Amino acid sequence: MKITKIETVEVTVPVQAPLRFAYGVHIAFTRTIIKMHTDEGIVGLGETAASAAQVEALGKPIIGQNPFDLDVIRNIIGNRFYWSRDPLVASGLEMACIDIMGKATGMPAYRLMGGKLRDAINMAAYCFYRYPSEETGAPAVSTPDEMASHAADLVDAFGFRTVKLKGGVLDARTEVATMEAMRGRLGPDIRLRLDPQSAWTVETAIEMVPRLETVGLEYFEDPVAGQPNMATVRQRTKLAMSTNMCVTSFDELGQAVQIRAIDVILTDPWYWGGPTQVKTLDTVARTMGIGLSMHSGIELGIGMAVMAHTGVTMIGLTAAVDAHYHHLTDDIIKGDMLLPKDGVLAPPEGPGWGVELDEDKVEKYREIHASGIYRNVYVEANTVGPDPNRPGWFPIIPAW
Ligand SMILES: [Mg+2]
Description:
alpha/beta; seven-stranded parallel beta sheet; binds magnesium ion
């Protein structure tokens, strides 16, 4: 079998309300959908945050390769020159190859990756301070009490047993008060996480530690920037420390272990270079005594299917997986959205990732992307600014 063509389409799907994070606001999620064609007529699906132009340029040299040769393909893409080592491209193309492998053999992707160790992945309620939306009528979430109610609504709707607050948005004391309000509202049995996205100084993080230890966190994610600062905070708390910012590749892992900077890595099938690389990290992290969780980079349905198929095969992935997905208004796959039930998401059954594109929706959200109605304010920060509600604002990290 040979790869004959790599087709891409950029789509933008709006969210229910503008989501605030330390670096700006998400008003819609933009993803590049990959359709990899073969000489046997099989089309494999992938999804990534890399642009269509990047995927097409870096994907060209794998035309003619056998999609089963995942290591060959990753080396061709990643070792053309140092600038070609973009894991977002290699991962999206690897996902399309695995989908082809599944469709060619009639097997679900989880079987190709070693089989299901559990039936489903646990999912976390990802909570954001947000602006109100005129389009959907969704109200603002701006205060500790509003966030506690919002989190309780998500727990009721989807059965989440883990709740994460995206911090680094309001001042640190208000965010800790938000965690206290969430604990009060949700009770002792829900696992709580706080992720200030490295917007705090070491001094602020250490000052907040006693209150957060009283709240009780499953883990304290990236309060400060960089491994040395994380190690300093980690020495001052009983809380487990996690990251998706100071360890994002195998190259960064050795020092983090050496200086004891972290307890948990939020892995990611895109940033780590593909599902096979996340599987490798599962083994390496376990060997190093580091726990695993999974990061979300604003996925659509193909991405959620990838996370579920990959996650159920990973021994170390017992923690709930982050997903922005429940904030979306729609998706581009056929059938129901891949929303969690009873707090878990099972991998869709069927060959490969088990999902099919709804071509009408792909066209709808391709047009919306092309129209620029929902500008990606984060990417187009030079013209729009990272937060349309705060003209002239730009993030300074650390902020508190
Ligand atoms: Mg994070």
